[in-house]
Amino acid sequence: MDKCKFHPNRFAHVRCKTCFIPLCDECKIVTNIGVFCSEECQNKAKEFQDKSMAMIEQKPKPKKSIIKPVAGIIVIIILILAIALLLDWTGIVTLPFVDKLKELIGLS
Ligand SMILES: [Zn+2]
Ligand SMILES: [Zn+2]
Q1: How do residues 79-101 score in pLDDT, each as one tens digit?
Q2: Count helices and strands in the chain by DSSP H and E runs
Q3: Which residues partner with 23 through β-bridges?
Q4: Structural domain contains residue 2
Q5: In the chain, how many domains are there?
Q6: E strands, the chain, where?
Q7: For the segment 25-73, what is each residue's pLDDT rounded down to a tens digit?
Q8: What pLDDT score does 55 carry?
Q9: What single DSSP character describes residue 97?
């Protein structure tokens, strides 16, 4: 087991979260973000945490909100065209635009 950086005759049970030096129970500063050797290290860790929090918040929002409706409309159009072609093929209904469509995709 490591010895405390500041008390060579004491065992260190923890390490500073920022500089990783071994610390005894007396030297450690326990905070809600970790154990530190000094306020300086505590502040560094806090700064780092704040930065990473800010980075998470600044993450660009996914552009799915724009792409999704467009993709949905395309899927609906394809479905309608497929149904129209199917209806025409089965002879149930002949929709006026199906002939044009068949011309377009080379079915006629
Ligand atoms: Zn430290
Ligand atoms: Zn100590």
Answers
A1: 998 888 888 888 877 777 777 77
A2: 3, 4
A3: 14
A4: no
A5: 2
A6: 14-15, 22-23, 29-31, 34-36
A7: 999 999 999 999 999 999 999 999 999 889 888 877 766 666 778 888 9
A8: 87
A9: H
Q: Same structural domain for residues 53 and 74? A: no
Same domain for 49 and 76? no
Per DSSP, 3 falls in state B
Write out the residue range of the structural domain in which residue 31 sits: 14-58
Residue whose entry in the numeric block shows the structure tokens 């467009």: 70
- Over residues 8-27, the pLDDT tens digits come to 999 999 999 999 999 999 99
Residues, CB-to-ion distance under 5 Å, ligand 1: 16, 18-19, 37, 41
Q: How far is the CA of 12 from the centre of ligand 1 (A)?
A: 13
How far away, in angstroms, is 82 Cα from ligand 2 center? 77
38 and 68 together in one domain: no
